[in-house]
User: Which sequence fits this backbone?
């Protein structure tokens, strides 16, 4: 399986500002410190020697993740990251109206659906788009987003053929050749996580989820759902102190992610749904905290990374 992250930011799109960019350039120029970089190769080698958060950016698109196996794909959430994903699909069968696309929504908070009206394949006659989720009135919710008060084109006026499927907790579904299980999570209005399996490999997408308690009894259902996942994509929006200050706001932290990943014997933990106000340094600091925490806990085998727009993982 291949996992491609198109949007990793929570709550609101958060583009880099000119000031942020200038600060990065300034620090790079100072780092170069009079060094001669005569060729593009030299310049690239210098850049690649720097940490990612200094030379790049985690990005600002809201949640959208593509899971691929050959030509078969699932799309997880329809935040603003689905716009560039849709663009990329237009070069294939979706551009000719010959695609069936499966979109699984964690929930319908704005950041997870706001890219949908800009999903180009939805405007191509002949394409089939199937939207899945745990909420019972998904179609009404997406129509409401495209009410004339909010957007000029209604869902009915998008030319693809739409259908909506409600998923139930406790059942296993076969979608585009993937096996998919569902968990209900603690979040305002509820959210759903997905355990996606293919050829013995497991990816869990669990965003917008808060853990009210940390005792094993409460966590059991999550530990079971995450068990032995090759990749766990995890809501790590908050710092540890924010998880206390923002109780019941529905998000979690990198350290809670480490605890759960260790209990569940997860192989790779991917920090996801970064706060809109978090700059690249702050996201890196959440990652560093998680790395030192896992070391203190002796969880040597657990790999941890912070997701960025454009990141690709092979599972
Ligand atoms: Zn969200
Ligand atoms: Zn939410």
Assistant:
């Amino acid at each position: 399986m291949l996992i491609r992250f198109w949007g990793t930011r929570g709550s609101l799109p958060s583009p880099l500002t000119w000031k942020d960019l200038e600060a990065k350039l300034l620090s790079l120029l100072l780092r170069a410190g009079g060094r001669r970089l005569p060729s593009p190769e030299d310049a690239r080698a210098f850049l690649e020697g720097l940490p990612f958060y200094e030379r790049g950016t985690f990005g600002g698109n809201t949640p959208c993740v593509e899971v691929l196996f050959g030509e078969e794909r699932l799309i997880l959430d329809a935040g603003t990251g689905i716009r560039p994903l849709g663009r990329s699909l237009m070069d294939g069968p979706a551009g000719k109206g010959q695609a069936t696309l499966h979109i699984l929504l964690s929930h319908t908070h704005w950041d997870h659906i706001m890219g949908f009206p800009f999903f180009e394949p939805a405007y191509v006659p002949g394409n089939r788009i199937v939207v899945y989720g745990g909420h019972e009135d998904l179609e009404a919710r997406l129509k409401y987003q495209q009410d004339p008060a909010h957007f000029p084109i209604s869902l009915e006026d998008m030319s693809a053929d739409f259908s909506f499927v409600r998923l139930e907790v406790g059942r296993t579904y076969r979608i585009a050749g993937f096996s998919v299980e569902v968990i209900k999570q603690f979040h305002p209005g509820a959210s759903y996580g997905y355990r996606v399996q293919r050829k013995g490999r497991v990816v869990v997408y669990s965003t917008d989820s808060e853990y009210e308690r940390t005792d094993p009894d409460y966590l059991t259902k999550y530990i079971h759902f995450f068990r032995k996942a090759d990749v766990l994509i995890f809501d790590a929006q908050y710092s540890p102190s924010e998880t206390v200050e923002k109780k019941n706001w529905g998000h979690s932290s990198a350290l809670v992610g480490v605890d759960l990943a260790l209990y569940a014997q997860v192989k790779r933990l991917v920090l996801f749904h970064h706060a809109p106000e978090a700059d690249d340094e702050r996201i890196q600091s959440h990652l560093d905290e998680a790395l030192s925490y896992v070391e203190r806990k002796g969880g040597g085998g657990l790999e941890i990374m912070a997701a960025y727009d454009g990141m690709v993982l092979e599972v």
